[in-house]
Amino acid sequence: MGAFARQKGVPIVLVYCPEYVEAKTFFWHHDEIVAYYQRISRENGVVFLDYSSLPMTLSKEWFYNSQHLNRSGAREFSSIFGWDIRGLLSSKE
């Protein structure tokens, strides 16, 4: 996973984006998927950011549908994600 990126010093981040809480009822294997991503990232030395349980996932106001953020949700999530990435990059320096 990402051997070329690693050679070039490019950090790899695996991200599970927020989804509206009701989407978890459509995908009964949500916990298995997250566990799989955690295992893959751990085995490959890759950071895994799981946003599936952010407080925003509890409110329809942020979502276009159960799996897609609307404009406001995308802005909010981008801000959160941006801060997290900034923190990761600054900790690598």
Overview of this protein structure:
- With 93 residues, the protein is an alpha+beta fold.
- Helices cover 48% and strands 14% of the residues.
- The chain is built from 4 helices and 4 strands.
- It has a two-stranded parallel sheet.
- The longest helix is centred in the C-terminal third of the chain and has 21 residues, at 71-91.
- The radius of gyration is 15 Å and the shape is globular.
Number of separate helices: 4
What is the number of independent domains? Answer: 1
Order of helices and strands: HEHHEEEH
Taken as a percent bin, the fraction of beta residues is: 5-15%
- What's the β-strand tally? 4
With strands numbered from the N-terminus, the spatial order across the biggest sheet is 1-2
Note the topology.
Blueprint: H1 3-7, E1 13-16, H2 23-26, H3 30-44, E2 47-50, E3 63-65, E4 68-69, H4 71-91
Concise structural overview:
The protein is of the alpha+beta class and 93 residues long. 48% of the residues lie in helices and 14% in strands.
Keywords:
4 strands; two-stranded parallel sheet; two-stranded antiparallel sheet; 93 residues; alpha+beta; single chain
